[in-house]
Design a protein that fits this description.
It is a single chain. The chain has 153 residues and is mainly α. Helix content is 67%, strand content 0%. It is built from 6 helices and no strands. The radius of gyration is 17 Å and the shape is globular. The two termini are 26 Å apart. The mean pLDDT is 77.
Length: 153
């Protein structure tokens, strides 16, 4: 397998991961007349890349699908890291995604234990799920590493 073929497969997988929420949100839109999930997902990514603090203060960004969005961001971030490091040939795409999920859980556990359990403020009552989601959202700027494939940019 050539490097170009593996990069093409990586891009196809990334597009599939992005299109899946679009298809699901279209089906929900037809049934419930709800806001598109894909639009919310892109809104979260763009707010994170712009370093918009309202992403973390607005509770609507921490709804039911927020953990799934954060997980998808982490998987895509792991794949983007493999693409940027040009290790697609040496590492499997699935391994990059699994490593990203594992490190996401480890970092979230550290932040939760230190920030919520060891050194809490008087008003600190944050559930683990919200910390998990916030850490996942914070990795969205790492998606820009997909552009490391084209050195002309």
């Amino acid at each position: 397998m050539t490097k170009g073929f593996l990069i093409a497969v990586c891009i196809i997988i990334a597009l599939a991961l992005i299109l899946f929420p679009l298809i699901v949100s279209y089906k929900e839109e037809k049934q419930k007349k709800r806001k598109w999930m894909f639009g919310e997902f892109l809104n979260i990514i763009f707010k994170s890349i712009k370093l918009d603090k309202t992403l973390y203060t607005d509770n609507k960004n921490f709804g039911e699908a927020a953990v799934y969005f954060a997980g998808l961001i982490m998987i895509l971030d792991g794949i983007a890291g493999a693409v940027a490091a040009n290790t697609i040939v040496k590492t499997a795409i699935a391994m990059s995604g699994l490593t990203a999920i594992f490190t996401w859980l480890v970092w979230t556990t550290f932040i939760y234990v230190i920030g919520v359990k060891l050194f809490p403020d008087k008003q600190t009552k944050v559930p683990f799920k919200k910390v998990l989601t916030a850490v996942g959202f914070a990795h969205a700027p790492g998606l820009l590493r997909f552009f490391a494939v084209t050195p002309e940019l």
